[in-house]
Amino acid sequence: MPEGKIMKALSGFYYVIDDHSIYQCRGRGKFRKDKITPLVGDYVVYQQENDHEGYILEIKSRKNELVRPPIANVDQAILVFSAKEPDFNTVLLDRFLVSIEAKNVHPIILITKYDLLSDEEKAELDQLLAHYKQIGYPVLLTSAKEQMGIDQFFGYLQDCTSVICGQSGVGKTTIINELSPHLNLKTGEISTHLGRGRHTTRHVELIPLGNGLIADTPGFSSLDFDDIEAGELNHCFPEISEKAQDCKFRGCLHVNEPKCAVKDALNHNEIPTFRYNHYVQFLEEIQNRKPRY
């Protein structure tokens, strides 16, 4: 049986690429029965019905899977946040980072609209971003007016599958259009009344870009941690996870426990206070969520 990769999912159809040919496929009924949904990025076994259509018979094992956006087998996530309109938000960025870290996907932080900041605002943002660089996250700054950072960003996309995600209205689709103008993807203006962008991306699709693939995905403005347990959260904060190895008590949650290496590092300014505060905030959300049955 032939094998291929799902490049797009839309209205119950899955578009499978195999040797430069694309087949519009439906999933077999057994997927619905087993509550399995084929995802963009899945490697699949399919059966051709004719030159353009077919049925997906089997989904190959996934190395990872994201829920929002629904996509599988991702190498890295480009987390796009604007410096302004909407304003840069460390809480939301950390929510994305935690969700990505939990899926073992490599994150890259991309800041758009840097040119809209005053010199004072740039200095303030640079100071915040320095913490993320120190943690080990790649941080890229882009400016549409100056074409700054686009070439460097393009280099990160080669030879891998990337998902581009972030808050609505930050310029995700605009960046893809700048990298590959022939795509002419639809973009939306910021809604000044709501203070956020209109959702212009309606489905997930893998787009060839250079020697890699990038997914343009629906924007969204909130994330939950339904798949993360309290004891796992510290692994999603690399700087906390590193210090946690020296805690005296196994299973330390780094809040009220004695002889906690994380709290000690915090007191010695080895962990950014805002990052620790976000960790505590997310931990409380996980501890207070309703039980799942």
List the helices and strands and how they pair.
Elements: E1 3-10, E2 13-18, E3 21-27, H1 29-33, E4 43-48, E5 53-59, E6 65-66, E7 71-72, E8 76-82, H2 90-102, E9 106-112, H3 119-135, E10 139-141, H4 150-156, E11 161-166, H5 172-179, E12 190-191, E13 196-197, E14 205-209, E15 212-216, H6 238-244, H7 261-267, H8 273-288
Enzyme class: hydrolase
Subunit structure: Monomer. Associates with 30S ribosomal subunit, binds 16S rRNA.
Binding site for GTP: 112-115, 166-174
What does this structure look like?
With 293 residues, this protein is an alpha/beta fold. It has 3 domains: 3-60, Beta Barrel (OB fold (Dihydrolipoamide Acetyltransferase, E2P)), CATH 2.40.50.140; 66-216, P-loop containing nucleotide triphosphate hydrolases (Rossmann fold, 3-Layer(aba) Sandwich); 230-288, Ribonucleotide Reductase Protein R1, domain 1. Helix content is 27%, strand content 26%. It has helices at 29-33, 90-102, 119-135, 150-156, 172-179, 238-244, 261-267, 273-288, and strands spanning 3-10, 13-18, 21-27, 43-48, 53-59, 65-66, 71-72, 76-82, 106-112, 139-141, 161-166, 190-191, 196-197, 205-209, 212-216. The longest helix is centred in the middle third of the chain and has 17 residues, at 119-135. It is globular and about 65 Å long. The relative contact order is 0.12.
> CATH architecture of the largest domain, please?
3-Layer(aba) Sandwich
Q: Give the number of domains.
A: 3
What form results from the Cα inertia axes? globular
Q: Superfamily at the CATH H level of the largest domain?
A: P-loop containing nucleotide triphosphate hydrolases
Query: What is CATH's topology name of the largest domain?
Result: Rossmann fold
Q: Give the strand tally.
A: 15
Number of helices: 8
| Rg (CA only) | 21 Å
Termini Cα gap: 39 Å
Top-tier CATH class of the largest domain: Alpha Beta
Biggest beta sheet summary: 6 strands, mixed
Query: Strand arrangement, largest sheet?
Result: 10-9-8-11-15-14
Low-pLDDT segments, ≥5 res: 187-201
Strand content: 25-35%
